[in-house]
Specification:
Helix content is 39%, strand content 14%. It has 72 residues and is an alpha+beta fold. The chain has a domain at 9-46: Atp Synthase Epsilon Chain, Chain: I (Orthogonal Bundle).
Length: 72
């Protein structure tokens, strides 16, 4: 038996699978032709509101939605 098991290259590069997956998805989106490229990039954004809870009830959500985006 071999003592060194095969390690995925993304792990050997020191990144998580989620990071690797996000990089691959971004590269694929950038390779698309218009108008598909614009549509795919717009779907990449995630909007959510953060609200605080007090005494078991949600308080008013913050007025500014946060946008998460991954870029290389």
């Amino acid at each position: 038996m071999s003592s060194g098991a095969a390690v995925p290259f993304w792990r050997a590069a020191g990144m998580t699978y989620i990071t690797y997956s996000n990089i691959c998805a971004s590269l694929v989106r950038n390779c698309l032709k218009e108008p598909h490229k614009t549509e795919a990039i717009s779907r990449e954004k995630v909007h959510f509101a953060v609200s605080k809870w007090a005494e078991g009830k949600p308080q008013k959500p913050s007025n500014s939605p946060l946008t998460l985006s991954t870029s290389i």
